[in-house]
Design a protein that fits this description.
Elements: H1 5-19, E1 25-29, E2 56-59, E3 65-69, H2 74-85, E4 90-92, H3 98-108, E5 112-116, H4 120-125, H5 132-146, E6 149-152, H6 155-164, E7 172-174, E8 198-202, H7 211-224, E9 229-233, H8 241-248, E10 260-264, H9 268-276, E11 280-283, H10 292-299, E12 303-307, H11 310-315, E13 323-325, H12 330-341, H13 344-361, H14 364-380
Length: about 375
């Protein structure tokens, strides 16, 4: 069940590796798990007391095994899965489960790969996220030190890992995420009149995503282009869209309220419709390790305005497949948005170039061989994390 970029990336890797012939299984600690549209498969019941290792096994239409367990029984269940399923590599995607992965590593001796989807200390230092990220960062530090291999999403992330954890430098490999192709039309859903355009924000509504800078730019943009509108997708599941809007909008937005729409959390199917009805995708992040949303916007042929940081800076080419602006610079963000709102021809040119680029470089099938090679290398020459 997808709640954000991490879920999209992990799900993409799992399915793409399975299609490429790798045997892939997922250990899910509780849930929810939704397979093939069946929403009835929820997590294993919460257990208290002994670590029983109780498992519930499910198989998706692609033949991927899902092993569900309780929090209390996760370690016993994980060791059992690795031994009985005869796994060669354990691939960790979140430090929240480091306690589990490290126990499996100690019990089985299997090489452990840690996919660092975001550097927690950078979330706090660069993105200005609140203190809990530092608390979670302690678990991430243990995972970085104790894993046999680290996968960074971009060169910028590799440099951050080296900066914060220099002793881990030799373990780092760089491998970006990918995306599934789509048959979505690249023409026909975009406005061809200046000003008549929709600017879409897609993602978590948090500090490091640059939401405050985007909201600060809106009055100037809508004052200059009265027919444009902004759509914000995202927010905690089950929280009403009006509550999400009330959290972020200020009095200065009141004159433009009818042209600022918050949708709340959206499913992948709903997001496909949002992309199809948008003209510009804006990604104003202060810190962005990769940016699955960038690939999604490219796939749908959207003109993209993004902060010149991390993933966006390495995925997009300024002036050809998107427009980059200095992070936190509200004036530059407003200028970039206005330049595209007033020029539909440029929007279309950027969007089509991006759509071609993502299909030639960022599809999962183009990235799996590198992951397969990494797995083979880690099995043949396992490192011993300290």
């Amino acid at each position: 069940m997808i709640y954000g970029g991490l879920g999209t990336a992990v799900g993409g890797w799992v399915k793409a590796c399975a299609r490429a012939g790798l045997d892939v299984a997922v250990q899910l600690v509780e849930g929810p798990l939704v397979l093939d549209g069946n929403a009835g498969m929820y997590g294993a019941p919460r257990q208290r007391g002994a670590n029983t290792g109780e498992l519930a096994a499910h198989e998706s239409a692609e033949g991927i095994q899902f092993f569900q367990c309780s929090w209390s029984g996760a370690i016993a269940a994980g060791v059992r899965v690795v031994e009985e399923w005869r796994a060669d590599v354990v691939h960790l995607h979140t430090a929240m489960l480091w306690y589990l992965a490290s126990a499996i590593k100690v019990a089985t001796g299997k090489p452990l790969v840690f996919h660092v989807h975001s550097v927690d200390r950078a979330e706090y230092d660069i993105g200005n996220e609140p203190n809990p990220f530092l608390a979670h960062g302690r678990a991430q530090e243990e995972a970085i030190i104790g894993s046999d291999r680290l996968i960074a999403l971009t060169r910028a992330e590799e440099m951050l890992l080296q900066q914060y954890y220099p002793a881990a430098t030799s373990k780092i490999r760089v491998l970006g995420n990918g995306i599934e192709d789509t048959d979505a039309p690249l023409k026909g859903s975009f406005s061809d009149r200046a000003g008549l355009a929709t600017v879409l924000y897609s993602g978590r509504l948090v500090e490091r995503k640059g939401i405050r800078e985007l909201l600060a730019s809106i009055p100037e943009v809508l004052e200059a282009v009265p027919t444009a509108k902004f759509v914000f997708t995202g927010g905690p599941p089950r929280v009403p869209a009006d509550d999400v809007a009330a959290q972020w909008l200020e009095a200065k937005h009141n004159p433009f309220r009818e042209r600022i729409h918050f949708t709340g959390w959206q499913s992948p199917a709903e997001m496909t419709l949002r992309y199809a009805s948008a003209d510009i995708l804006v990604v104003p992040s202060r810190y962005e390790p990769f940016g699955m949303v960038i690939l999604e916007g490219m796939l749908h042929g959207l003109a993209i305005v993004a902060a010149d940081v991390g993933g966006p800076a390495e995925i997009l080419e300024h002036g050809r497949t998107g427009l980059l602006f200095p992070a936190r610079d509200v004036t530059a963000l407003s200028s970039a948005l206005l330049s595209l709102l007033k020029n539909p021809e440029r929007r279309r040119a950027l969007g089509l170039a991006a759509a071609r680029e993502v299909r030639s470089k960022w599809l999962w099938k183009n990235l799996v061989p590198s992951m397969r090679a990494q797995f083979r290398n880690d099995v043949a020459y396992p490192r011993q994390g300290s």
